[in-house]
Amino acid sequence: MSSKKISVIFAGTPDFAVPSLEEINLAGHEIKLVLTQPDRKSGRGMNLKCSPVKEKSKNLGIPVYQPSSLKNNKEALEKIISMNADVLIVVAYGLIIPDAILNLFDGHIYNIHASILPRWRGAAPIHRAIEAGDKVTGITIMKIVKQLDAGPMLMKQKVPITSVDTTEILSKKLSEDGAKMIVKLLKEIESGKLIKLEEQNEKEVTYAEKIKKNESLIDFSNAPEVLCRKIRAFNPFPMMYMIFQQKVLKIIKAEIYKKEINQNLIPGKLFLYRDNLLLKLTSGILKIDEVRLEGKKTMKSLDFVKGNKIFKISSVD
Fold this sequence. Notes:
This protein is of the alpha/beta class. The protein has two domains: 7-208, Rossmann fold (3-Layer(aba) Sandwich); 213-312, Methionyl-tRNA Fmet Formyltransferase, Chain A, domain 2 (Roll). The chain contains eight helices and 18 strands. It has a seven-stranded mixed β-sheet with strand order 5-2-1-6-7-9-10. Strand 15 and strand 16 form a beta hairpin. The model has no long low-confidence stretch (mean pLDDT 94).
């Protein structure tokens, strides 16, 4: 490529992709077209809602195209060809990109992936890294190939996972890092710099399966540290929950309660002890800090206690 600014087609859908779109635009590259998923019905009113990427694209004055599929889609192929763009950048787009499109960009088709590959290929790398207790994750920029997240890697940047990181918090950090990295890559391509490719080690591959709602019901036989990780991993979606007085009670924030309580307590029950809302598990106790009861807003645990009858035990020293 020459030293002129690179022209881009950008494919992305959720909030995670927005910083990359913004940074590419700010760097002066021409974004000829944005591909994003079709508007979806959501919320209580089931109103049509556009993706965060579409909303940002409209604000930036960038054309948006929303095919429901790219496979065997002649219209989509012709539209992409007509853009005559140099590079395709994909960030959490959510649709499979067929060979007919992959072959258009002379190898300049890049994906920003939220893990240090080859660990956590797949749909939910941030959730699964937190859930597994990983201490480090990061961003990998790779070339896209037919096999899922298996392409050669161009850039990596590690990011520590702290004990308070939720998927929401960590996603924000990683999305901002990914945005800076893709602009750096475009600058290197622009200058004609030879970029080294690193093949992934197939022996080290792990897969981040898509999050299912049925994973979010609390299993009281989980160890406290396992459940704490799940609570952070599944925040903001789908949120870990239990049934309290025939209603769904989502656990927003919790920590391990490390003090001894000499009481015969039933696993799965909430109780109040020394102004702490606690949840008994088979092999330990969680201190619940924030909850969201069905039909209510998120609240601190003691505010929740004020409006609900919670079993209280006396302090025993």
